[in-house]
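Note to self: keep these together.
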Amino acid sequence: MDNEKKESTSFSKGLLQSEELYQYILGTSVYPRESEHLKELRDITATHPSSEGIKSIIRALKISPTMKIDLFLDLLTNGAKDNKWAVMATAPDAGQLIALLLKLINAKRTIEVGVFTGYSLLLTALTIPEDGKIVAIDMNREAYEIGLPIIRRAGVDNKIDFIESEALPVLDQLLEDPGNENGFDFAFIDADKINYWNYHERLMKLVKVGGIVVYDNTLWGGTVALSEQSTPEAMREGRQRTLDVNKLLAADSRVQISLAPLGDGITICRRIL
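Structure:
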């Protein structure tokens, strides 16, 4: 265990060594540019039952997984036992990068798998042009409706086609229309990890060459850097699924990738073939 602690703190060249530094980044470059509607939705999400504190613990796990993992598990299995999907909220710094990517590629048609309360969805709707459209898929409409009044006040709900469903049938249905093949500019995936590769295969047909697909939670609380034996049992299955999809994405010649250490890790895939 001591050797793993040493490895987990020495291999990283990242500067985010403390919560204070992370808050400095948010306060300096993220929050000042965040729209009032995004801030309102972020605040509602943060105070929603079971979501308080989970995102900060995920950030802490990225910095020192062997020291923080027990705290994360306690919150996940006790404080969040009635609402485990609270961990799906998008980190605001990751959201800022997503907005930049959307602008850089002039995205107009997008897909979002896993909506939660709609922070990344609202951010996307605010970023794409007036005639842009988002296909938003989630099995939990209740969570989406927490943020829906804010999305409506922001005046962008007309850009969103929310579908309450499992994602694979919806993606397959989209592929039945030849007009959708290579018809989307961007996709954001923050959903069930077991299907990430199934989503990826379909998105490689739906998202055009030059388009971008972003996958969330690709560091899985920092456990990807631990051995299976050192990973708490409750996180082992998710860790293995994350390791598998990370390996597949890294070997996929159809995409150029970058795994950014924001939030719980986001992997950015630009389709090149």
